[in-house]
Sequence to fold (159 residues):
Amino acid sequence: MPEIKYVRGDATVPSVKGVKVIAHVCNDIGGWGKGFVLALSRRWPEPEAAYRAWHRGRAGNDFALGAAQFVQVEPYVWVANLVGQRGIRTGSKGVPVRYEAIDAALGPLADKAVELGASVHMPRIGCGLAGGTWSCVEPLVTERLVRRGLSVTVYDHGG
Fold:
């Protein structure tokens, strides 16, 4: 059984051959401007533009908690915008992360990665600004991605 590989580095620069999908968690209110999305936007304008258009058109599309959007940014690199957090602030209803939404979005991510023959790369999704804990997210990633035979690399940023 494959396992999640943990590395120190930048998830926007996966150093493996072949097709790659970079996955991250977005909120459900159309906000894009803090956390990992800034690193994505520094490299490619397409994921932000696609996410914002997806949110703007939400009355007529599948934009919602648990949805996934795939944006090709290079010939062998895709970005997966996974809607896995409600709002952006911690408040009376707790932290923004929604584990059930991350779990739901990992299904289409697995399907897309299998279809593309891709490896999956991500920061510790849902555990930054969304306020989640990796001990809750890791089993979802293992169940939805690793058990499908996908190669998953999780990046911890910094020195």
Observations:
- The mean pLDDT is 95.
